[in-house]
Each structure stands twice: as C-alpha cells, then as structure tokens.
C-alpha cells in the first residue's frame, strides 16, 4: 500500500530550527521579476532545499505582500532575503566574496544544466531574470558561467519559478 503521509508526519522544521539548520551553499538572485506569484514560489522552493539567501533586485517586489505570501506559504519568514536596487551591485559584492555567479539564460556558449558540475566546496549564486527580457546583459557579462536548461519543444521558454525549481533541484542533487 502507498498511504499518503499526513502533514504531521512530514518532519517539518520549526522556523527557529530552519534558521539554525546548515544551509545549502546556494544563493538566488531575482533580477527584475514582475510576477508576485513567481517570487512567492521561489521562496517556497528555496525553503524546501534550505537555500542560504534570496536577493530581490530592481522591480522585484518584497515581502510582506499578500500575493507573495499566498504562494510562499510562510517561507518568507524562514528564508533569509535582502532587497537591492541594482542586480549588478549584488553580483559584484558576491564575486568579491568568492561566490560563483551563474546566470540562467539562453546565450552563446552557455553550459547546459545537465553538463554543469558544481564543486562541493564552492558557493553558487544563480541569477534568474525578468519574465520577458531575461537576465540583464550586463549581469550575464559579469557571470562566471551561463547555464541553460535544455528544452526540446516549440517554446524554449520556462516560467521563472519552474526554472528555479529545476535548477535548484539539479544543483542540490549534484552537491549532496
């Protein structure tokens, strides 16, 4: 039998336990994300995989906001986040701290996600761009690597929250 687990059987961390837990060495940078639902979804995925921090940049909305909260399901209270007006400033700050900057984008000479091999002793920041324009070209230029999610259909366009889920799961499974 395959009985579904009840919520109380899921061994969920309390907020204080989450704050104290060892984090996955991944930082998420949201570059001018328009959709509040996408932002909330990224928080929720980041909570699920103990992501270290989210940077909300440019026009990306910040908690508390009802539409973010509705999708985030409380994860805005667990995952550390910070707002920055300029994405490039965040990228330069993190690079100075020896964080590898990875833009998730379709670009010349991009590394396919399935070919990307993260080093277990490195910290990574993954930049996800605007729903229409993608990651700003100046940020792409400053990235250590551009990673592309292979796609085989007619659209070659994933929702940003889906892209974030795919990338986080892939990197998490490779470094764990």
H and E order? HEHEHEHEEEHEH
| Proportion of helical residues | 25-40%
Low-confidence stretches: none
Q: Could you tell me the mean pLDDT?
A: 97
**Anisotropy-based shape:** globular
Number of strands: 7
Q: Could you give the distance between the termini?
A: 30 Å
Write up this protein.
- Helix 3 (66-72) links the parallel strand 2 and strand 3 (81-84).
- This protein has a 7-stranded parallel beta sheet with strand order 3-2-1-6-4-7-5, sandwiched between helices.
- The chain contains 6 helices and 7 strands.
- It is of the alpha/beta class.
Core attributes:
176 residues; alpha/beta; 6 helices; 7 strands; globular
Provide a concise account of the structure shown.
The chain is 33% helix and 20% strand. The protein has 176 residues and is α/β, with parallel strands linked by helices.
Please outline the helices and strands.
Elements: H1 15-20, E1 24-31, H2 36-48, E2 51-57, H3 66-72, E3 81-84, H4 87-96, E4 100-104, E5 111-112, E6 124-129, H5 137-142, E7 145-148, H6 160-175
Parallel strand pairs: 1-2, 1-6, 2-3, 4-6, 4-7, 5-7
């Amino acid at each position: 039998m395959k009985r579904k687990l009840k919520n109380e059987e899921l061994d969920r961390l309390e907020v204080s336990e989450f704050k104290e837990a060892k984090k996955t060495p991944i930082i998420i940078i949201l570059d001018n994300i328009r959709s509040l639902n996408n932002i909330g979804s990224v928080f929720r995925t980041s909570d699920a995989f103990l992501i270290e921090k989210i940077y909300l940049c440019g026009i990306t909305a910040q908690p508390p906001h009802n539409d973010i909260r509705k999708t985030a399901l409380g994860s805005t209270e667990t995952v550390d986040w910070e707002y920055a007006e300029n994405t490039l400033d965040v990228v330069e700050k993190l690079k100075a701290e020896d964080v590898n900057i990875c833009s998730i984008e379709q670009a010349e000479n991009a590394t396919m996600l399935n070919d990307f091999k993260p080093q277990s002793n490195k910290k990574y920041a993954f930049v996800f761009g605007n729903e229409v324009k993608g990651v700003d070209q100046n940020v792409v230029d400053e990235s250590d690597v551009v990673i592309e999610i292979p796609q085989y259909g007619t659209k070659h366009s994933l929702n940003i929250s889906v892209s974030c889920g795919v990338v986080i799961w892939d990197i998490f499974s490779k470094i764990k």
